[in-house]
Structure prediction request, 372 residues.
Amino acid sequence: MEAGGRRSEDQVETAAARLSWSAPSQWNSTLGSDLTPYLEIGGDYRQVLPGAYLIELPLPYSLGRINVYLLRRADRFMLIDCGMDTEPCFQALERALEGIGAPWAEIREILLTHVHPDHMGLTQRLLKLTGARLLMHAEELKYLDRLSAMDEYSAWSADVLREAGVGARMIARIGEAAHEIHKSFRRLEPHQRLHGGEKIQSEAGELEVLWTPGHSPGHICLYGTGRRVLFAGDQILEHISPNIGWHPEQDPLGDYLASLDVLERLEIDLILPSHGAPFSGHRDWIRKTREHHAERCTRILGLLNGRSASATDLVPGLWDRELTPFHYRFAVFEILAHLEHLERQSKVARVRQGEVVRWRVNGGTAGHNKQD
Prediction:
């Protein structure tokens, strides 16, 4: 359990993919009955708005399932996210589209909320199959270019972990765990690079592209004013606090909190997330999430009280269970994101000891030195 009672994305097992969901009464006419009958193998779908379908696809790790969305646009469809590059995921998507009555040839656009493997893994395969146009945020394309240079990115990641105080054995185990995941990161050339503010016409109403960085540099949501609906990607997940990992020359936590400020001002009745069931109550969720990150920052400052520590030293004080190598990397990068945010507020300062960067509570005299 996370600080403030919130669970981080890497801590949720099957709870994040609950399939039993009672829709609020005002949505019953839209959402209809229970999921279609592919419960165990994926391919479940339901109409969530006129002309908009939620499709559940299986994932091979603890989140269990991902929701992708199909939008009807005049005489064609747009697919929001693709699922992971696995055969079960592809087959589940194929079954759902057949049930909806959306042949591959009528999917003319694919929009990626961001390029994490469970969202973009099938993109290349689907582009070849459908001939669709690809839309994604310009900043996410830059991020993907770095990720897809696998050897260089792996070496950079190992250097960051080493500076964070992670030992050589754990770094090697993290590299082994990440190897298969990294195969999903293939270079893409979108037909349209989004920047935020673009409008998409659909049978579910006009949707505006919102740039919501933090979870990923070019993460986007789609907001429909008319139906007060948010296609949220991983920005807002009911039972999970999305992982906010460190990126060079950025303040991911600050960016994430700022993007929540934007969403808080919107009128939203229905949140359509990438994991878990649709829900409502975005302002309460945002308040609790802000509290969670504020408490995490406070705990980090408490752990640094009277001493200096590496990011690795802080892991046991924030996670009370053993982490797999894959999740250990998430933990270290999330701590680094919080330390970066605190440093930009002049609350902590970094001190290099050999190849390891240690952190201390700032006495007000240390300068701000970026980590390369």
Remarks:
- The two ends are 32 Å apart (CA to CA).
- Confidence is low (pLDDT under 50) at residues 1-40, 364-372.
- The chain has one domain: 3-294.
